[in-house]
């Protein structure tokens, strides 16, 4: 381990009905572990759902899984160096179970998740709403290029990497017509990714302001015609139901927004058979998707106004405001611990 003076750190602890700022000792890293000083965290929609009661999460806990930070200490064998500016994966895999062996580490049988672990567990500093986070051995870490600002890099850890996984599941994008459901952070990012890969990317959302904003990221307005792929980031049964009949022969429906129980959908198996449809879903992502996310943002930072999607950062003391307010036109609220 590099020379490291332990001190105090502050963390925003979600208690179920409130968030307390707690001061505690900053631990030294164990073997394979990395201690990161958080530079900026962004508030993902799932954290908004947790705080509003729409989503179950361990409690008490330190929320926050989209963040960028600077490595301040490393344990032996850790995949980073002190001084690196990095983003890290949401999931931490064991690397030993059958699913990890098959390359599905996002669904590791012993998976742990950044921003989703109990504050009372052996991984106390597990979330981004803190001045520091400890990344256990098995966490995928990616260095951030110097020209990529913190506000652009932070969403890579969830939104951008998730989009990379969804687009991969849809197959080759070149020359294809794609319909994207939702012009939030994921849908807007998906429009940019699909366009970058040669697709005719259309987007739908009831919010006209968000639709207009998505145009700056390569999106086109829906023309109502047949499409080769549908990417759903809404989780809305109505959108899925209405978009499915528009899938052309050998089309793919990729579900990424349905992360909570919802109404059942009727699907005609004959249509799937005769039209060679693929219906699939993704939840979380693999380390390669995080690497692709950072590389993509690095290539397109001058092409699209990524930083305009994120608010000016609030201090950690205002985390309650950050997680209880909708971001509006800015698709991510930022916190700078």
TrEMBL record:
| Residue ranges the record marks as coiled coil | none
Ranges of residues in domain Enoyl reductase (ER): 16-335
Under Enzyme Commission nomenclature, its number is 1.1.1.1
Matching entries from SUPFAM superfamilies are given as: GroES-like (SSF50129), NAD(P)-binding Rossmann-fold domains (SSF51735)
- One GO CC term of this entry? cytoplasm
Q: Name one GO molecular function term.
A: alcohol dehydrogenase (NAD+) activity
* Alphabetical list of InterPro entries matching this protein: ADH-like_N, ADH_phosphonate_catab-assoc, ADH_Zn_CS, ER, GroES-like_sf, NAD(P)-bd_dom_sf
Q: Which CDD domains match?
A: MDR_TM0436_like
Keyword annotations = Metal-binding, NAD, Oxidoreductase, Zinc
So which cofactors does this thing need? Zn(2+)
Q: Entry's SMART domains?
A: PKS_ER (SM00829)
Domain of life according to the entry:
Bacteria
What family is it from?
Belongs to the zinc-containing alcohol dehydrogenase family.
Which named protein is this? alcohol dehydrogenase
